[in-house]
Amino acid sequence: MIIKTSLRALRREGATPEQVQRAARDIDEEVTRLNRIVTEVLDFARPIKFDLAAASLNVLAEDAVRAATAGDGQTAVRLDLDPAVPPMRTDGERLRQVLVNILSNAIQAVAASPPGADGPPIRVWTACLDPRHVSITVADKGIGIATEDLPRIFDPYFTTRRTGTGIGLAISRNIVEGLGGRITVSSERDRGTEVRIELPVDAPMA
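and the corresponding structure tokens:
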């Protein structure tokens, strides 16, 4: 509907340059959103192929924060990276995709909540659990998740956002579990959400 409305504006005789630019911008944004939806549906529908290689969880965390906040510019993220986290053998690109998705959700949750306590609204930290396992946690001070919705957040196509696809967290869980890890979420309405990912240092072969 957004693309159709924008096209009508472009076809209208006497459309001003401002109206043309606005319509072109709306079409571009909608195409980007539709492309993301199609990509997510395809990713969820087909088996995930992992490309295991050496990676640093701390570097992946930094890259994910930069990517997730690139177009935001307002949400502060605190990074606490444990120097004891060892090098990993995992699919760094897939894991980065998971972190960007979780951080994007956190940024939207913070944006939808009223100003809260002092300090960064989002915190990301890594930890070495034991010689063979590590963890990364993303915690936000956003609107949180309703108690009745929490058991369903990993269900495919379940979403409470108007523009959400409901696939992002389902794909994230598939990736994490495919890498031999687990992902858990705890949340409280109007208090925030914490997403914790535990991973083996050496991911299993597919």
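(Above: one complete record from the training split.) The first helix runs from residue 2 to 11.
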